[in-house]
Specification:
The complex is a heterotrimer of chains A (385), B (127) and C (249). Chain B is mainly alpha-helical. Chain B has six helices and two strands, in the order αααββααα. Chain B starts with a helix and ends in an 8-residue tail after the last helix. Chain C contains nine helices and ten strands. Classes of the chains: A mainly alpha (385), B mainly alpha (127), C alpha+beta (249). Chains in contact: A-C, B-C.
């Protein structure tokens, strides 16, 4: 099937070229990090995780969201998703690949990475995160590839794949739960020390992932001339609506608990993010954009006639994506580190090199995504014809 | 066979590239074991010369884990039965006090760069 | 070879016992609390502590452990000065009877907790608990993931963002103690290398009687006697990490 990826239009090759350029730029920037260490980033003794880990956290969510189509399709036999499911699975593959890359570029000693396998330590959540992420990558490649191959041959997928598909459902939930556990099990980091972190991560994942998938469906429809189907997109839109509302609801629960109890070690982080602390307020405008974008998206998505208009739906999806990306990709990590355990305010602002490396990882992920989508859409067109 | 021209050219390029190290080294002098400057006033190392030559990396790794992780300080030599303190700087480098004339000789000629000296400080202020 | 086999047997043995992430292993300490076990601790006499003593202790520690002086927010600190207000957040705000303390400076360092979160989260056991209570680091094994820095509620850990040798003058490097390499985390190791030689930590020696040191599990030790006599506080006791550093007030 891979041969589908090497036959394409000028536009396709132009896009591939652009992505390769992005990867090369990121790699070039990474050579500086290899030489100079993580000193080229904006991270510090106080904010010791930054943009890389934030992107990792966000993308775990995007990856987990494939489950929102697997459940209706395989547990409720909702066949409409059969047509687009492969797009969700391949999006998960690309997203998990980016997650793993972000972890690697974040390490101070990447050449010692395999120490995690050499000295397995089950009491560390990072150990479990490694297992669930790699497992999820494997599951999605396997399931996606086998079902697509069966579709191409015009036969039912083999029976042995079913257990893997069922396994992928709790597994998808686990990747984001374990990722939340990375943070919410730490004493002394009041911002993350909340049982609702994992549910909140999942809610925002089930909003951002399907929203991104809707946008991808439109892109596929326009550029690859293959229609994923109106009903599938409409069903995804309903999922996005429920999920973004749940996400904002969870956020408000968090704000109530922290705001009403007024325990400083929890409250100060929210103060810093939304209003600034001791004159440092870099993130405040962003956080408000996130909240407003989220609320605006809810306002649009609540009305069915808005969802039925492609343009309005696409715009709402952009808002959802923006809202969840700022929340997780910017605020979630640095917000947890400011103020530090001594209640000092040291801000984190990513450097240009750090952003270039981030761009490189995203380019690599989109390269994987493009190639996989080219294969999937090629097969689908062949079957349709 | 379709595209036999392309396939055969590809195979030839592959074989040439794969055997490149052999081509490249034709005519260059055979490998000679470098001469090491040995400590003058000490006759024996903690283990036999042959063992040290082939196993010193494993020995050092084991010492490292013993000292740092197991909190064990002394090593009993299988050669002499004497006990020595397991320490790169305090034991090894006490006798082999010139890194450039000892460690680096073989490491350089074999193109290996162990990262010991990223942290441990070589005697005589050498880098 | 021998080490590998031993390691394999150890892992296989533990695996068959069935690994669980729950309490027994979460309590990462190998030593336990029982008497007979050594548990090293410090008690800082904040009444006698002054700027001169603090400086002396810091210099002795940092110089002898090749801790570089980096003049930005990526600095390395093993032992440093901060105000009571920052060392004990939440306890100094309007607590009248110790309010004169709030802006006073004191020394902070790794607490060598009996239940250390940093050890719990480390994915490679590069940070681990020694039988004598020292929260130890194996710099060879650290992959630089910085999970321990997120986990430490005392901000005791520093990461080598730079190559530390850039900030150490070669004539000032102590040859007896290794420097670190870029990309690993470091912190106070309670002078394990000196304890093994029967000496006291550098900071204790330099502070000349202002910092008490000894075995917290030994009722006859100097530190236990002073703790029995005077009122002492620990940093963030509510987090259940059980610090081994006391502040006499």
């Amino acid at each position: 099937m891979l041969e589908k990826a090497i036959k394409g239009s000028k536009l396709y090759w132009g896009w591939i070229g652009l992505l390769l350029l992005g990867v090369a730029t990121g790699f070039f920037a990474y050579t500086f990090q290899m030489k100079e260490g993580l000193s080229i980033t904006g991270m510090s003794r106080d904010v010791s995780w930054g943009f890389y880990i934030a992107q990792f956290t966000f993308l775990v969510g995007v990856a987990a969201s494939a489950v929102m189509m697997v459940i209706p399709k395989y547990l409720h036999h909702y066949q409409t998703f059969g047509r687009v499911l492969i797009l969700g699975e391949f999006l998960a593959v690309a997203a998990v690949s980016m997650c793993l890359l972000f972890i690697v570029v974040d390490l101070g000693q990447p050449q010692r990475m395999l120490n995690v396998l050499l000295h397995p330590t089950p009491r560390s959540i990072l150990f479990w995160d490694m297992i669930v992420l790699n497992g999820y990558l494997f599951l999605n490649i396997l399931i996606g590839w086998v079902t697509l191959q069966a579709e191409r041959k015009g036969v039912e997928p083999p029976k042995w794949i079913k257990p893997f598909i069922y396994l992928s459902i709790p597994w998808a939930v686990s990747i984001h739960t374990v990722t939340a556990f990375l943070y919410c099990g730490l004493p002394g980091r009041g911002f993350w020390l909340t049982a609702i972190l994992a549910p909140r991560f999942l809610a925002s994942a089930f909003a951002s992932g399907p929203a991104f998938l809707i946008l991808l469906c439109y892109i596929v429809k326009i550029f690859a001339k293959w229609d994923p189907g109106k009903e599938a997109i409409q069903s995804l839109a309903k999922i996005v609506t429920y999920a973004i509302i749940t996400n904002l609801f969870f956020l408000s629960l968090e704000i109530f608990t922290v705001g009403y109890s007024q325990i400083p070690s929890h409250l100060l982080h929210f103060k810093y993010l939304f209003f600034g602390l001791e004159g440092h307020a870099t993130y405040a405008p962003w956080m408000w954009v996130s909240v407003v974008a989220g609320l605006l998206a809810v306002l649009i998505l609540l009305f069915p006639q808005n969802r039925k208009s492609d343009n309005v739906l696409a715009m709402a999806c952009v808002l959802v994506f923006l809202s969840t990306w700022i929340d997780k990709g910017m605020g979630m990590i640095s917000g947890g580190f400011v103020p530090n355990p001594l209640e000092e305010v040291v801000e984190y602002i990513p450097t240009k090199l750090e952003l270039l490396i981030t761009l490189g990882v995203y380019a690599a992920g989109f390269l994987i995504l493009t190639i996989l989508y080219k294969v999937a859409v090629g097969v689908k067109k062949e079957v349709d014809a | 066979m379709y595209d036999s021209g392309k396939i055969i050219t590809g195979l030839i390029i592959f074989v040439v590239l794969f055997t490149f190290p052999f081509w490249y080294n034709i005519g260059s002098a055979a490998y000679k074991q470098p001469k090491l400057e040995l400590p003058k006033d000490v006759k024996e190392c903690v283990e036999s010369k042959e063992f040290m030559r082939t196993e010193h990396m494993q020995l050092l790794n084991e010492w490292r884990d013993m000292v740092v992780r197991e909190h064990i300080k002394d090593y009993k030599s299988k050669l002499t039965g004497k006990e020595v303190v397991m320490s790169l700087t305090k034991t090894c480098m006490k006798c082999h006090d010139n890194k450039a004339k000892f460690c680096d000789q073989c490491h350089n000629s074999l193109a290996v760069s162990p990262y010991c000296w990223d942290c441990h400080v070589a005697p005589k202020g050498e880098k | 070879m021998r080490a590998n086999r031993r390691k394999f047997l150890k892992i296989a043995g533990l695996a068959t016992l069935g690994w669980s992430v729950f309490p027994n292993l979460l309590r990462a300490s190998e030593g336990g609390e029982g008497a007979g076990h050594v548990r090293w601790g410090l008690a800082i006499d904040t009444k006698k502590l002054n700027d001169e003593v603090m400086e002396k202790a810091i210099v002795a520690c940092h110089k002898n452990h090749n801790v570089p002086h980096i003049p930005d927010k990526r600095e390395i600190k093993w032992l440093w000065k901060t105000t009571f207000h920052k060392a004990f957040p939440g306890q100094m705000l309007d607590n009248m009877h110790i309010s004169e303390y709030a802006e006073k400076e004191t020394l902070v360092l790794c607490n060598h907790c009996d239940n250390p979160p940093c050890v719990r989260v480390c994915p490679t056991k590069a940070t681990f608990k020694r039988a004598d209570g020292i929260t130890m680091m194996d710099f060879h094994r650290c992959i630089g993931c910085r999970y321990c820095m997120a986990a430490c509620p005392f901000g005791a850990r520093s990461f080598n963002f730079y190559d530390p040798k850039k900030f150490l003058k070669s004539e000032e490097i102590t040859t007896q103690f290794p420097t670190r390499t870029k990309g690993v985390v470091e912190k106070c190791l309670l002078c394990y290398e000196r304890l093994d030689e029967g000496k006291k930590p550098y900071c204790v020696e330099a502070a000349e009687g202002v910092i008490y040191f000894g075995n917290l599990n030994d009722p006859e030790s100097e530190i236990r006697k002073v703790l029995a006599e005077r009122y002492a506080i620990k940093r963030k006791p509510e987090l259940g990490t059980f610090p081994s550093v006391y502040y006499l007030i």
